[in-house]
């Protein structure tokens, strides 16, 4: 057993800092499910019921599923068939969206209202899907907890290791990602949207609007505190320009998107 640890630790030392992930896919999925249930408990009936018989709520969820499916079917999502990719709307004015490990995605109506078109929304969707698909939570937890502590939990006889990890995940605020993870998710969003009808650089619009509104320094955790919104706009635009020749050309219009307007209307926004 000892040589096993030495082997692992040696390989870890050879891997760059912050990129190590000691959680298995199954642990991330379980962690995600428990986090999802915590969100349900916290928000109660503010989480709009995806099985609602209200035709407006149904239509709103159908809109969200279409955007999600476009991203998942881009051919660039590694765990497309492995993770849950459940999406929920939280009726709350918070300007935010987040995704737990294992693909449980939450959008606040505050953010849906703030955005003005489907490409901007798809850009955020791509960004959130990327956090799960690139397994940022597992890496962040590994990084914050320290490898030796995590190894001892994983190697331990305790059957509730995932419960322990869940509480650590919650306590450490692992949903606030590092600067490099935010950049990776922005770049992945561009890749995901390239083959879709949404504008490839859709993710930049949110940051641009925040800057225009003078909101960029007090932005949501979605922004993390680190990457400068102006840099994010530039990076997303330049990444999209580089691959634009290979992307679908029949893209939605930024300034006139009646489907997104209807989506907001269905939610009373
Ligand atoms: Zn993010």
Any chance you could write out the topology, listing elements then pairs?
Blueprint: H1 2-13, H2 25-43, H3 55-72, E1 86-90, E2 97-100, E3 104-108, H4 109-114, H5 118-133, H6 136-145, H7 147-155, H8 161-171, H9 179-193, H10 204-212, H11 229-243, H12 258-266
Parallel strand pairs: 1-3
Antiparallel strand pairs: 2-3
The structure holds zinc ion (ZN).
What report would you give on this structure?
The chain is mostly helical and 269 residues long. The protein has one domain (18-266). 55% of the residues lie in helices and 5% in strands. Mean pLDDT is 83; it is low at 1-16. The structure holds zinc ion.
Count of runs of 4 or more consecutive helical residues: 12
Our count of domains comes out at 1
Shape: globular
Would you tell me the overall average pLDDT? 83
- Provide the low-confidence segments as ranges: 1-16
Radius of gyration: 19 Å
What ligand molecules are bound, each kind once? zinc ion
Biggest sheet features: 3 strands, mixed
Helix-and-strand structural type: mainly alpha
**Ends distance:** 58 Å
Main-sheet strand order equals 1-3-2
Beta-strand proportion? 5-15%
Residue share in helices?
A: 55-70%
- SSE order, one letter for each helix or strand: HHHEEEHHHHHHHHH
Strand element count: 3
What descriptors fit this protein?
single chain; 3-stranded mixed sheet; 12 helices; 3 strands; binds zinc ion
What's this, in brief?
The chain is mainly α and 269 residues long. The protein is built from twelve helices and three strands; from the N terminus they run H-H-H-E-E-E-H-H-H-H-H-H-H-H-H.
